[in-house]
Amino acid sequence: MTYDPYDRELVPLLYFSCPYKTTFEIEISRMKDQGPDKENSGAIEASVKLTELLDLYREDRGAKWVTALEEIPSLIIKGLSYLQLKNTKQDSLGQLVDWTMQALNLQVALRQPIALNVRQLKAGTKLVTSLAECGAQGVTELLQAGVINGLFELLFADHVSSSLKLNAFKALDSVISMTEGMEAFLRGRQNEKSGYQKLLELILLDQTVRVVTAGSAILQKCHFYEILSEIKKLGDHLAEKTSSVPNHSEPDHDTDAGLERTNPEYENEVEASMDMDLLESSNISEVEIERLINLLEEVFHLMETAPHTMIQPPVKSFPTMARITGPPERDDPYPVLFRYLHSHHFLELVTLLLSIPVTSAHPGVLQATKDVLKFLAQSQKGLLFFMSEYEATNLLIRALCHLYDQDEEEGLQSDGVIDDAFALWLQDSTQTLQCITELFSHFQRCTASEETDHSDLLGTLHNLYLITFNPVGRSAVGHVFSLEKNLQSLITLMEYYSKEALGDSKSKKSVAYNYACILILVVVQSSSDVQMLEQHAASLLKLCKADENNAKLQELGKWLEPLKNLRFEINCIPNLIEYVKQNIDNLMTPEGVGLTTALRVLCNVACPPPPVEGQQKDLKWNLAVIQLFSAEGMDTFIRVLQKLNSILTQPWRLHVNMGTTLHRVTTISMARCTLTLLKTMLTELLRGGSFEFKDMRVPSALVTLHMLLCSIPLSGRLDSDEQKIQNDIIDILLTFTQGVNEKLTISEETLANNTWSLMLKEVLSSILKVPEGFFSGLILLSELLPLPLPMQTTQVIEPHDISVALNTRKLWSMHLHVQAKLLQEIVRSFSGTTCQPIQHMLRRICVQLCDLASPTALLIMRTVLDLIVEDLQSTSEDKEKQYTSQTTRLLALLDALASNKACKLAILHLINGTIKGDERYAEIFQDLLALVRSPGDSVIRQQCVEYVTSILQSLCDQDIALILPSSSEGSISELEQLSNSLPNKELMASICDCLLATLANSESSYNCLLTCVRTMMFLAEHDYGLFHLKSSLRKNSSALHSLLKRVVSTFSKDTGELASSFLEFMRQILNSDTIGCCGDDNGLMEVEGGHPSRTMSINAAELKQLLQSKEESPENLFLELEKLVLEHSKDDDNLDSLLDNVVGLKQMLESSGDPLPLSDQDVEPVLSAPESLQNLFNNRTAYVLADVMDDQLKSMWFTPFQAEEIDTDLDLVKVDLIELSEKCCSDFDLHSELERSFLSEPSSPGRTKTTKGFKLGKHKHETFITSSGKSEYIEPAKRAHVVPPPRGRGRGGFGQGIRPHDIFRQRKQNTSRPPSMHVDDFVAAESKEVVPQDGIPPPKRPLKVSQKISSRGGFSGNRGGRGAFHSQNRFFTPPASKGNYSRREGTRGSSWSAQNTPRGNYNESRGGQSNFNRGPLPPLRPLSSTGYRPSPRDRASRGRGGLGPSWASANSGSGGSRGKFVSGGSGRGRHVRSFTR
């Protein structure tokens, strides 16, 4: 029997009470359920006493009345509830409200003797609190009696003490905690200020800090309530708009919508029509959706900070920054917030949002709703809230699962909600809690005398057991049982059925008992939240001791071993660390499982929870860290990591997964706990900069751990646990950058020896240490480096923050400069790689390094240019230069870097030839220009030419600049902008000559021509460029004619882009008067409007001269082109605008009269000398303002690497393997190595014995200042058998279904049937017509397999195909480059060519493999202004294609055309390969 989550629905809540009901309401409903006749002595006594008090003091208002007032609150819950049920006529509540109002009255209080008056007022406020909890009726009566005004009179009165004011605030807080109270507080009566306004006035008066804190808490609650009201309005608005749409758009109507798995083709059709219907019918604007996202994010933020910002401070507390001790008792704000959520139908609203395609397809909405839901599901009360709203929750989960399935069917993993199977986790969590409620209510009903294995009980336990079968369910069960007292349900069951209760034989046979054993073991193994073990460890250990024959209980005993007689306090730290030291040799063995528990408890006791805004810092955590250091924690944790690495290395090298689910859970839990402990200790130690930490075992162990756990996830992307491990590793390495003492003078020596430099040295040297660590090392370096500027933001960043950002980058640059040799070696070593993931990581790192400061930019670009110089000069002088695939790869790298502003300016700086010693770069640039003029026939030369033209395009693009033009006053002039971002006039002249020579050359390829025309369009935007273009046109007057002729002769649908670009260029250089006269409304007309600063132009007669030759006039060529376009436009509507252009230009030329030669009267625009590179870096644009945060720019700085883009015909390199093996592996004995790896290896990959070369540091390491960092630990990677370097697809046998250690194929047969066949074997057998023997890995899979078969051993996600690297956050795609843009619309800033559809282009950077996930992400080429809104010029469309971040070469080094990748509006943001040749 398998567990089908879709079969189960939530039912009304049992046993537990609803989280937003007050104790009074719960008591009333309990009495109603029990019936009035049930004996209830406590309630009867309380009600009798309450009645007596009310009768006694009807008139008397003296001392005894005050005493009575103080007694009443304790009688209300039981007494008043009983009275209301029994005696409905007696108005006890009205009388109590009356008393309350009198008690709050200052005049009445002043008549009392001293001391009694304060007691009376305090008793009155407490009575308000008690009565406000009597449900809607209590609050309504209080409000009618004017309680809010009464409390404000008290608060505004003179000479009222702070403590009394705090009591009054507490009373006010309890009134507004009921929705009726909140409504009255916010609205106010006619012509009277609302309570909210009065409260603001009160806080603005001179109040003590405690009073202000108490008042602010009430304001925060009001804000939360108002935000929910806003969301409800938006939700109702959406519901109205979409209710007119055909029914199939709302799965809510069809209760089985989420369950049916219909024909996928039909579903796709329905979905397409749904999207269309909705986009047409629901005029939901982008602004509304943006507002909705902001509101949901604010709800999440307020709920997260509620425990510190929304509760009334205890009377004895004081709001300081930090505290050592303090009142631990704190109110719980969440029941009130849940009441607000309930009254605003929040879950129903979320379900609606997830059911309407317009919002459910929006990544921002999905992410914001997921954050709120995930937060709710973290706590017991939150889960109970889901269960008390069970109908809405059932629909909500169905809507989430529907999205999940939809994305699975499409093989997409794009949306935030889907990344971590959150829908399933939420479903499993609520189901688990439902089972727990069933267990508890079973014990309420049954007694021990009944039969032990009750069928209902077994059904519940069986369901729980089935949920634990998949990893998501297992983590959900672990999570829910570790909340509050849920585990008690299983412990009660075991105590109920244990030997003492039932006798030995019955206990053994009890099925329920065995289920309970298994479930408790699963919870203890998989839950890292060990707080619940503090209460339950003793009783569990007792049960384990009692039943020594039960294997599960004995295993549980091992897990709980370190908890014997342990209290979870700071004092237990030394004992736990001692336990870890003693058991470190048993790590990852059945005997050593207690280690995991010990580390979890240490984390719980010594590591503070992540800080939340508004929270007081608790200094007990500082004491805990001191304890960790004094108990030699640092050395112990490093040894744990080293030991873990040594155990994981061997199976990892064999590409084996982390073993069984339990093995994986233990590994991840161990790594996470150890990393958290190290992070806490190092953060505390290095925070002030007064200590230095030089134990380099830490970075070295972290680098290895990252390689083993985070570099190559088998699923193709990091799951949330692996992502957290990667984040922790990065955070720990970044703590080393804090250990730099600011007071020390900085010299070469101190720089090279501080903690920052030592950490960098360790990370950089690890990159090239062994081939298996290449990729991991590059990811690690990339994650450590700061993000490239400018940041994209919706609000102005303060100058102070900008200077911090720039200084951080300068400090990184200084520390990296010390390691210049290592950096150069890394760039040199990887520059020639054909392994595309590594190519992409290298480009990414080079861009990050260049972006830091001018010294690193020059260092990296010098290294790249030197490589090109060496490559081109390696051939002897007399022969013609040979261009190899290595040249192609180097030029591809240069092209990728030139499209980034910092790299481009460094290149310009170097090729100017003005710096002494750098003349060779100017010469090599002229060589490259010469190459473009004579492309030749060979494919490799053609490719090189394409890369060089693409580099020229970047160099001539004025928008790729460190200082972006802004609409502010005092910003730089356009001429200064050009001088800082374009080549100088000598270079510009040679570039223009080269461009025109390329146009005139009949051998130039299509891509090459297209890029040249685009470059000329960039230059024609300003006088400086147009002047040089005109002077080159005088020298080479036939260039435009030969290009026009070529356009006409080769015109087809595929070459239409060149034609339209060329026509656009001609319209651009014509003077603006003629442009106005052929007005048509296509986007090309706006080109000129954006550039009022250009004064120079070419008139139509001059253009006619340039386009004609002796044989034919331009009019005839245009006529021919018009016919061709007409012919093709029948099939393709997109050619209509091209046809209009052709006609317009033809008319213009016809009306221009006789052709004239180009005038040479133009004055040459003189550019000022460019600023030094250092000045440009110092004054660079640090951020770009946007009206709305653009998800497409925010989502990812580089798009990830896609499986489809791996090039199959990669370069093959000749290698003599025999010679290589003799040289490197002379003492390698294959037989004994295989025996050691396979035959002696136990069933689980992690159970290997420690290798001989491995010695844990036996001697003590003084890990403070004195540590040398040299231990006797021999890194496993240095042993003889090193994996060969990764080729093509990353490590070894990635994409094939080969697993050297495949448990499935090596299992024993336990049946007489013939052996079953694995699906991979079956596919292989079908294609090869052979049946592989069982137990032998199958042959390598053919690359193209039918689409539906997922590759088992490789990366899942893209539903078959090649099963190689897949999906969003794995490797990096070269985004659309300049080879063939789609037209760029809108502002210059939104330079993303392909992201028109809202769905599918958002990468959730939390789950990402190597995404940059820190802070707001800048675009790669943000073409907008510095911290100001883009000026009108910037907003005009300039008719240039979508300048995507130009990671130009997808297939560097491949033969054939240079396939650029552009995704048009293709469905859901998938990349589409477009060949433009």
Which helices and strands, and how do they pair?
Layout: H1 23-34, H2 41-56, H3 63-86, H4 92-104, H5 106-111, H6 116-132, H7 135-144, H8 147-156, H9 162-176, H10 179-187, H11 195-204, H12 209-243, H13 264-281, H14 286-309, E1 322-323, H15 334-343, H16 346-355, H17 357-360, H18 363-377, H19 380-388, H20 390-410, H21 416-419, H22 422-445, H23 455-467, H24 471-481, H25 487-496, H26 499-502, H27 504-509, H28 511-526, H29 531-546, H30 551-560, H31 573-583, H32 594-606, E2 617-618, H33 620-630, H34 633-653, H35 661-686, H36 697-709, H37 720-735, H38 748-753, H39 755-767, H40 774-784, E3 791-793, H41 799-818, H42 820-830, H43 836-850, H44 854-873, H45 885-898, H46 901-911, H47 919-933, H48 939-955, H49 974-981, H50 985-1000, H51 1006-1019, H52 1023-1035, H53 1039-1049, H54 1056-1069, H55 1072-1077, H56 1086-1089, H57 1100-1107, H58 1114-1129, H59 1136-1150, H60 1173-1178, E4 1183-1185, H61 1191-1195, E5 1200-1201, H62 1217-1224, H63 1230-1239, H64 1319-1328, E6 1371-1372, H65 1432-1435, E7 1460-1461, E8 1473-1474
Parallel strand pairs: 1-2, 3-4
Antiparallel strand pairs: 5-6, 7-8
Helix pairs in contact: 1-3, 2-3, 3-4, 3-6, 4-6, 6-9, 7-10, 8-9, 8-11, 9-12, 11-12, 12-14, 12-16, 14-18, 16-20, 19-22, 20-22, 22-23, 22-24, 23-28, 24-28, 25-28, 25-29, 28-30, 29-30, 31-32, 32-35, 34-35, 34-36, 35-37, 36-37, 39-40, 40-43, 41-44, 42-44, 44-45, 44-46, 45-48, 47-48, 47-50, ...
